[in-house]
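pinging the channel bc i need a second pair of eyes. not urgent but kinda urgent?? the chain im working w is below, pasted from the shared doc
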Amino acid sequence: MREQWCLIRAMTQTDMQTQDSPFALFGGAAAVAQLTRRLYQIMDEDPAAARIRAMHGDDLQAVAVHVASFLTGWLGGPRDYFEDPARPCIRSAHRPFDIGPEDRDAWMACMRKALAEHEDLDPSLKAAFDTAIYRLADGLRQR
C-alpha cells in the first residue's frame, strides 16, 4: 500500500495533466469541487453517516475544499495539495481517527450517492473511480 502512495506522489504534473486523464474526463476542477461539496452535504444530512460525519468537525465546507484539492491531484489535475508542504499525507491526516469498515462504508455510501448525481459522467469512468476511491478509503482504516 505504501508503494501506491509513493507512486501517486512521484507522478509529475506534466505526466498527469493530459486530455484523457481521469481529471479531464471527470470535467475538471469545477466538477470535482461540485462532487465533494455534494458528498459532504449528503454526509451532513444522512443519519446513517452520523458517526463518520462527527469525525469531520463543524466546518464541512473547509473539508470539502481540502478533499477537492486532494482529488484534483489524485485524478491527474493540478497537484497543489501534494505540493503544499503544510499538507499532511492523506494517511497521516486520518491516523488520529478510529476508522473502521463501517466508517469506510458510510463514507463510500455518501460518495456513491454524490457520484450518481453526475449523470453526464461515462459509466465506465464512474465504475473505475468507485473502485479506486474504495481502495483509497479502505487504506485509511485504522482497524
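so Residues 1-16 have pLDDT under 50 and may be disordered. and The chain is about 70% helix and 0% strand. — does that match what u expected or am i reading it wrong
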